[in-house]
Amino acid sequence: PKTENPSPAEEASFASWCFFAWFEPLIWRGFRKPLTWEDLWNLRYRDTSTYVVAKFQKQFNEILKKSTRFSKSEHDTKLSGPTNTESKRPKKPISITGVIFKTYWTTLVSCALLKLLSDATGVVTPLFLHSIIKFVESQDYMWKGVLYAVCMFLTGEFQTITVHHYTYMMYVLGINCRTALMSAIYKKALRIS
């Protein structure tokens, strides 16, 4: 849905998204003057409580439906003889962790891949440093040394980009999980009271 002050992250180009350049205007605005509520953007729709709670509730209901079985209530049979009433009883308790995983598995896998890439480039960088040290000692062709230095720089940049996107995505995921859980707890408290 269209909003009055949409987040620039929605319309950001790939380069702007990679380097978080879409966030820069807010930083400059905050540098020039104190930020007010009017300066802030609206949440992306997929981060609003309406969307997050509906997505979580859908997965919760699916898991609840799968884990519920119909069985004749022993209490009804003893009191009034055989009846056709059936009561729902869960086969096993529902794991809230399983519901969260099923709801956000794509984000979790994306974050895991970003972290894996970040850690892999962290391992590769010292290898390039070792190659540069060997290059200086051996008096080899100059282009090899430049190539090692450029590769070391690029892997460092790639590691920085991946770790920052991993951190950003995990923060957003944490906020979304908190929103979904708060809503579920609130609904449960209302049902109990």
From TrEMBL:
InterPro entries on file: ABC1_TM_dom, ABC1_TM_sf, ABC_transporter_C-like
PROSITE patterns to which the protein is assigned, alphabetical: ABC_TM1F
Coiled-coil intervals: none
Principal cellular location given in the protein's record: membrane
Pfam families: ABC_membrane
Gene Ontology cellular-component terms listed: endomembrane system; membrane
Keyword check for Metal-binding: no
Membrane topology category: Multi-pass membrane protein
Molecular functions per Gene Ontology: ABC-type transporter activity; ATP binding
Keywords of the record: ATP-binding, Membrane, Nucleotide-binding, Repeat, Transmembrane, Transmembrane helix, Transport
Localisation: Endomembrane system
Domain called ABC transmembrane type-1: residue spans: 112-193
PANTHER family: ATP-BINDING CASSETTE SUB-FAMILY C, MULTIDRUG-RESISTANCE LIKE PROTEIN 1, ISOFORM I
Name the record gives this protein: ABC transmembrane type-1 domain-containing protein
Species assigned in the record: Graphocephala atropunctata
Classification lineage: Eukaryota, Metazoa, Ecdysozoa, Arthropoda, Hexapoda
